[in-house]
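Following the same procedure, sequence and fold were stored together, as reproduced here:

>
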Amino acid sequence: MAKKVQITLTANEGKRLIAKAAGRMPEIQNRLKNHKILLCGGTTVSALSEELGFGPLRISGRIDASGTRTALKKAKAPHNLLLDHGKGQNVDSSIQKVAESLNDKDLVVVGANAIDPMGRAALAFAALGGGSRGYALHSAYMQGVPMLILAGINKLIPDLGAAQAHSGRAGIDLSMGAAIGLYNLFGPVITELKAFEILFGVEAVVIAGSGFGTGDGTRTFVLRGEEASIQQAWELCLGLKGAGVSACEDSLFTCVGGCRHCQRHVGCYYKELAQGED
C-alpha cells in the first residue's frame, strides 16, 4: 500500500542524506577495494568521507552569509583524499600527479556550487585556473575519469548558462568576498531527490523552501512509495535532525580579509577594507 509523508531537511541534513546514498552506490562500493576514488573536499563530500569511515575533510572555499569566502588558515586534514584500494591518503600536495594517474576504472567525487533544471553543474573557483584542484579536475577529464557530483537541491539556480555568461574573476568591480568563476562539471548529479530513490526506492518532490531562523535554506519534500520504504525514510530523516556541517573543525574559520589567501583573489571588499586599515 502506497503512503505519502512530508519531510523537512536543513541543508546540512540534506548533505548527510546525500552522503549516505552515495556511499551505497555501486559506483562507490565497487571501487573502494579494487580501484581509486578521489574525494575533492566540500561539505557534502566531507560527509561522504565520514560515511565511509575516513573522517571529515578540510574545507577551503565556502559561501556564507558574508559572501564567497575562503578559510582563514590551512588545517592539517586533507582537502583532497585519495582512496586507493580502501586506504586513505592526503594528496593535497600531489593532486595534479594523482589526477594524471587515474583512469576510466577510477572515480572522482566532487561537490557543486550550482546545478540547474537541465542537470548541468558547476564548481566555483576564486583562484586563477581554479588553483591546483581546477587543473587537476581538467586533467582527470582528459584521462576519461568518470565523475560523481554531490549537490543539495539548495544549489539549484535557474540557468547555468546565464550564470556563466555573467560570472568570472575578471570584470567584477567589487564583490562580497572573492570574485568567482564557474567550472563545468560533467557526471551524474546526486541531490536529495536521487538520494531518496537510491536509499529507499521512493519518489521525492520538493514542495517548499524556507528562510526563517535556524530553518534558513531548508527544503520540504513529499515522499511517496510503499509503506515500509516510506517508514524507513521517515525514521532515517528523524535521525538526521540536528546534523551539523561536515568539515575539519579548524577549517571552519573564515578569512577576515587580508589573510595569506587573499593574494590569489580579486574584487574582494573585505580584502580592500583590511588594506585600507593598515
